[in-house]
Amino acid sequence: MGIVGKSLFAVVATVAFQSNGVLAQDVAPHGFAVAGTHNYLGLNLGRGIETNCPAAMIICDSRDRSAQLFAGTMFDKNWGAEVGYVDSGRVLRPMGDARTQGLSFTVVGRTQLLPSVGVFGKLGTAFGRSDTSVMGNSGTSGPEQGFGLAYGGGLSWDFSPRLSAKFEWDSYDLRMGNGPVRSTSLGLQFKY
Questions:
Q1: Phi first, then psi: what are they for 21, rounded to 5°?
Q2: Rounded distance between C-alpha atoms, residue 64 and residue 176, angstroms
Q3: d(CA 26, CA 34)
Q4: What is the pLDDT of residue 81?
Q5: DSSP β-bridge partners for residue 191
Q6: 121-171 residue pLDDT tens
Q7: Is 33 helix (H, G, I), strand (E, B) or coil?
Q8: How far is it, in rounded angstroms, from Cα 68 to Cα 43?
Q9: Of 152, 133, 153, nearest to 143 (Cα)?
């Protein structure tokens, strides 16, 4: 292998070793924070559950899927804040169908149960707007809007350092008149 071959081998080995160190920082083991990943974006899709129903019904039906689009930041390992857009879809009510949308502002608490499995909870407020008149119901009062309580929680599974799956249960008081809108959902969260 001559001097040129040995020098070339040394340069390639040095570059590979240094790039391996960079990759090791970006691809940390499951459950460990990656540098620069305290912000996140996500999308949850689920089904709404209504709890204020006539006595003969255990739960009311939601005809559409609920959706949540959210962004957040973690201040440290366990605490952060999140803002989200919530669409409950079309919910069948005793007085007719309704559609509710809103913005939520919550404080988030998280902890790890296992290296790649975590649990989280959220508490805050939501500004919502519901409208029953747009669904073709006669005799309804039209849109309602205002602030209400927002809370929820769930489990997360980190299947890569930047991407995690979520199972979440949420309750939003989005001014529907009869009470909060509740939903269970599955989602993805991307950390950056």
A1: -65, -40
A2: 16
A3: 6
A4: 97
A5: 40
A6: 999 999 988 766 544 555 455 567 888 899 999 999 999 999 999 999 999
A7: coil
A8: 6
A9: 133
Give the side-chain half-sphere CA count within 13 A for 101: 4
Sorted by sequence, the CB contacts under 8 Å of residue 23 that are 6+ apart come out as none
Lowest-pLDDT range, 29-38, 98-107, 117-126, 134-143? 134-143
Q: And the tokens for 187?
A: 């989602």
Please, what sign has the CA dihedral across residues 17, 18, 23, 26?
positive
Residue whose structure tokens are 């350092």: 161
The tally of CA atoms less than 13 A away on the side-chain side of residue 182 is 13
Neighbours of 166 (CB within 10 A): 19
* Strands 96-114, 79-93: pairing kind: antiparallel
116 closest CA partner among 67, 59, 70, 165:
165
Distance CA 50, CA 59 (A): 6
CA separation for the pair 32, 70 (Å, rounded): 22
Point out which residues pair with 1 in neighbouring strands. none
Stated length of the chain? 192
15 backbone dihedrals φ, ψ, rounded to 5°:
-65, -45
The SS3 call for residue 4 is: helix
The one-letter code for the residue type at 191 is: K
Q: 65 to each of 12, 28, 82, 157, how far by Cα in Å?
A: 53, 35, 22, 23
